[in-house]
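Bump. Still looking for TetR/AcrR family transcriptional regulator structure tokens.
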Amino acid sequence: MGTKGEKTKHFICEAAFRLFAEKGFKDVTMKDICEKTGLSRGGLYRHYDSTSQIFLELIHTLMADQQNEFEEKIKAKVPAREILLHVLDRYETEMLDREHSLSIAIYEFFSGPSVSKSSNSIQQQYEASKEMWTALIRYGIQTGEFSPVSPEAVYDLIVFSYQGVRMYSRLMEIEETIPKNITSQIKSLLLKEREKK
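Sorry for the wait, here they are.
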């Protein structure tokens, strides 16, 4: 597919992201995406067969972007502390941003009957994210910036706190102190005293 096709797919995904964040997964139709993008049904189906295909591409792109960010920074020997603080700052903002949360859509998609449990499971997303985060935590331990912790345990704390707040933010108002308290505790666990300053 040429550059024009890739731009169109990107445009479709951006519009679909907004719809999935607003309505969840199950209430978004291909017709909704046509209306949001201004594309004809034929134009949309030239690129995607279903809302499931679009949603999976969105999830894979988001995961790949963060994985690439971590890998590139670790490879460039960016301090682990700097990587961590940058991501936690972003997570604080995202936890409060109920309009751009895909948490409900993720739950609906991965718990739905149409998803092949073997090929597109939430378990795979969890494992991919875990691999990325534990690599960062091990890197920080090796450089002496992070305390010697269990990378897997800290990852679970990060992912389930983050996703939990994002899910709750769709159902109730979240006070600003909640994300800050969570990221503060993660920093306390990981950063050595001299690194906290």
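The mean pLDDT is 88.

Edit: fixed formatting.
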